[in-house]
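Class, carefully examine what follows:
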Amino acid sequence: MTIEIKVPQLPESVTDAMLVAWHKKPGDPISRDENLVDLETDKVVLEVPAPVNGTLVEIKIMDGTTVTSGEVLAIIEEGGSAAVVAPADESSSEVAKLETSVPVSGGDSAHKLSPSVRRLLDEHDLDATIVIGSGKDGRITKSDIMEYLKSHSDENVAPGDPAPPLAATAQVSSAARSEQRVPMTRLRARIAERMVEAQQSAAMLTTFNEIDLTKVKSLRARYKDAFEKEHGVRLGFMSFFAKATVEALKKFPVVNASVEGNDVIYHDYFDIGIAVSSPRGLMVPILRDVDQLSFAQVEADIAALGGKARDGTMSMEDLTGGTFTITNGGVFGSLLSTPILNPPQSAILGMHSIQDRPMAVNGEIEIRPMMYVALTYDHRIIDGKDAVQFLVSIKNSLEDPGRILLQL
């Protein structure tokens, strides 16, 4: 029996998707729940699994095509082998290029490559089998490819060694003057659209403060080993900031609100978006009900979401909602910045690098680990007084972490 493979129902906020890559070619056997094709929306990469065991008979839509919900992508034959139908507009040699699962890291199993990694391999004409993967189960990451290109540049090639790929050589040649026109990914285009929308629709203003993290760093140093042993996750700074943020949001609920037309929507729950970098661009997965999570649960959830972002397995549910956002530019070395709102939220907290600076403490000069923090807020509903006091509340909680425990 033949079965049509269709584009799944897309979320209400997503109108279409782009077919990124097939993982099978006509004639290949397939197993139930095996991923057949990747579809990229403006938020996530969706996987389309096989509904039954069988054979891929025909591919209806090729890579790079924009598709909508319900469109037929391919035909499969349930059970045994079936006659293979090549796509009408593709030669057999081109169809062969659809196979994208390759062995990596010298292992004996095939690992899926993320769309961004696959594109990078194609751009540099690299065979995935020669790149050592450092990701989970030996999966190749973008950093693995860049490290390979760096180590195989013309400066590192010894006499008698094979020459590096031409694309890799071009990357390190200072004399080359070339340009490359690359279309934005759907995610990057959507990020750009939302940033412009935020600038045009909200009255954004930013207030700043600085936080002495002496006591937080002392707590981490004292308990980090015991914490990791007990909970199986590292104790970072983000859990302190997330919990301090919740306490501040309880005191200033308008900062946790959003604007809808002429109405202000107050949320009595605390779903915090944590901005993370991924090979596809910036993503903001959501930690649900942070007020009900322990420090260990916050750290574990952040680690899990970060892994999904790197592997390209983030779901729509992971990215939907959120009442407030925290972004940490400090991990990239940022000293100070003005973050942009994540609509329809009305405020966003920016963390930055921790730097040892001389500070006046009780009339004495001491070297303290200091961090600048920034709160960008929508001045249409949040007054400057509330914004400033909100940031002061976070500062007080982090400079005296016992206040978080006691909810002061």
User: Anything to note?
Assistant: Confidence is low (pLDDT under 50) at residues 88-111, 154-170. The domain at 101-182 is CATH 4.10.320.10 (Dihydrolipoamide Transferase).
